[in-house]
Design brief:
InterPro entries: ABC_transporter_permease, MetI-like, MetI-like_sf. It contains 12 helices and no strands. By secondary structure, the chain is mostly helical. The longest helix has 34 residues. The radius of gyration is 24 Å and the shape is globular. The protein starts with a helix and ends with a helix. The relative contact order is 0.12.
Length: 295
C-alpha cells in the first residue's frame, strides 16, 4: 500500500470519530457557551441577551457556595477514602493466589452496577425504621447512634458519600492490585534484607514503581468529585434542605425544575472549568513520572 493510500485510509477511519465528537461534544459545548449569555427558559426561541448576568448571579448565590462546599468535601473524602482503602486492600491481597479472581470480581462488581440500582439499595439500608444499618446498630448496643441517615441534614451528605466510596473502592482496588503485580520483588526483598520496615518499603520502593497508575486512578477519582450527580440525585435529590446539594444537582434543578436553562448551563460550565486545571495538572504529572520511570 502506497503512502497516499495509507493517508486516505487513515482519514477514512478518523472521519466517523470526528463526526461523533463534533455532534456530541463540540456542538453542545458551543451551544452551552451561547446559552450562558442569554436568559433561556426552554420555550422562548429568541431569548434576551444578558451578558455576564448569569455568572454575576452565580457568584452571589448562597446556594451555589453551599453546593460548592459540598463538592469540596466530596472531592477530598471521595478521593482519599477509595484511594487509601483500595491501596490497603490491594496490599493485603497482593500475594494471595487462591481465590484472587473471586476477590477481584466481588469488589469490582459494585463499580459496574447501575448507579440507580446502587442508590436504591443503599436507600433501603439507610431507611430509619426498617433499614439494616439501624437494626445492626441496635443489635450491637449502639441504638443511640441510629438516625434517619438520608433525612438528617447532618448525615445525609456523608451517608451518600459512604455509598460512593464503597462503589469506587472496587475500581481502585482492582487497578492498583494489577499494578502491584508488576512491582520488582527483587528490590523489595533487598530492602527487607537491608532492614527497611513495611512502611519504608511501601513509600520508597512500591509506590514509586506504581506511581503512574496511582496518579491515573487518583485523577479519575478526583474528577468524579466535580461531576458527581447520579447517586446523590437518586438517594437524596440534594436534600434535605440542600444539605447534600452539589453543583451538579443544583445545575439540574435550576435547568429542568425551575426552567432556568441558561443558569443551569452556567453552573455546568463552571463545573467543567473547575475540573480542567486539575485534569491537566495530574495528566502532566503522570506523564512526567512515567518518563522518569523509563529513563
Amino acid at each position: 500500500m502506497t503512502r497516499k493510500a495509507q493517508a486516505r485510509l487513515g482519514v477514512l477511519l478518523v472521519v466517523p470519530l470526528l463526526l461523533l465528537v463534533g455532534i456530541f461534544l463540540v456542538f453542545p459545548m458551543i451551544n452551552a457557551v451561547y446559552y450562558v449569555f442569554v436568559d433561556f427558559n426552554g420555550i422562548n426561541p429568541a431569548p434576551p441577551w444578558v451578558g455576564l448576568a448569569n455568572f454575576t448571579e452565580l457568584a452571589q448565590d448562597p446556594d451555589v457556595w453551599a453546593a460548592f462546599s459540598n463538592n469540596i468535601i466530596w472531592i477530598v473524602l471521595g478521593t482519599v477514602g477509595p484511594i487509601v482503602l483500595g491501596l490497603a486492600l490491594a496490599l493485603l491481597l497482593w500475594h494471595v493466589e487462591r481465590g484472587s479472581v473471586f476477590y477481584r470480581v466481588a469488589f469490582f462488581l459494585p463499580y459496574i452496577l447501575p448507579q440507580v440500582a446502587v442508590g436504591v439499595v443503599w436507600g433501603w439500608i439507610y431507611e430509619p425504621s426498617r433499614g439494616w444499618l439501624n437494626k445492626v446498630l441496635e443489635t450491637v448496643g449502639l441504638g443511640g447512634l441510629t438516625t434517619g441517615w438520608l433525612g438528617n441534614p447532618d448525615t445525609a451528605l456523608y451517608a451518600v458519600l459512604a455509598t460512593a466510596v464503597w462503589v469506587t473502592l472496587g475500581f481502585v482496588f482492582v487497578i492498583l492490585l494489577s499494578a502491584l503485580k508488576g512491582v520488582d520483588m527483587d528490590i523489595v526483598d533487598a530492602a527487607r534484607l537491608d532492614g527497611a520496615n513495611g512502611w519504608q518499603r511501601l513509600v520508597h520502593i512500591v509506590l514509586p514503581q506504581i506511581m503512574p497508575v496511582f496518579l491515573m486512578v487518583t485523577t479519575i477519582t478526583l474528577l468524579g468529585g466535580f461531576s458527581v450527580f447520579d447517586i446523590i440525585f437518586v438517594m437524596t435529590g440534594g436534600g434535605p434542605a440542600g444539605a447534600s446539594e452539589v453543583l451538579g444537582t443544583l445545575a439540574y434543578s435550576s435547568a429542568f425544575q425551575l426552567n432556568r436553562i441558561s443558569y443551569g448551563t452556567a453552573l455546568a460550565l463552571v463545573i467543567t472549568l473547575l475540573a480542567i486545571p486539575f485534569a491537566v495538572w495530574l495528566n502532566r504529572l503522570q506523564r512526567r513520572v512515567s518518563l522518569e520511570g523509563t529513563s
